[in-house]
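user: can you give me the structure for this one chain? tokens are fine.
assistant: on it. calling the predictor now.
[tool input]
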Amino acid sequence: MALRPFPSYPACPVCGDRAVNPSSLAVAWSWDPERQLALGRFTPGNLHAGYAGMLHGGILSTLLDECLAWACAVRMRAYCVTGELDVRFKSPAPIGEELELAGWSVSSWGRYAKARGEVRSASVGQVATASATFVALSRGESEALHAALRLEPDDVDVLHGT
């Protein structure tokens, strides 16, 4: 099965449109229905360095947070907010090299979902891992966010299971 894109929120600092938010990382997220993975790619530039030649850990954490949130949104059929995020940094992420992010939901109960994820690069291998707990927004809150998203015809619609 082919990867399916997720919608974007134009003002988002992670998945936004740079015409709306010039500071956005502009990551295009996708869903792999076969492997049940949220996926993204990001190439950090010099503006993302926390120290000479290395991606700032806060930006790496932000990327993982959004990746895992998408995985939980698919599982919960609702948009989710972060309750807890634990990131384990394994190796510095080099500036100028594409990073591959993957997130998957491992369990859910009530309004809560747990997810895990990782970031990899070609030269370093595993850069970081993460685990997180998310809380599903209410149906009304999810519908309001859904209305604000830029949803293209082929995008994953987590609320309606398509």
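assistant: here you go. The mean pLDDT is 96. The chain has one domain: 4-148.
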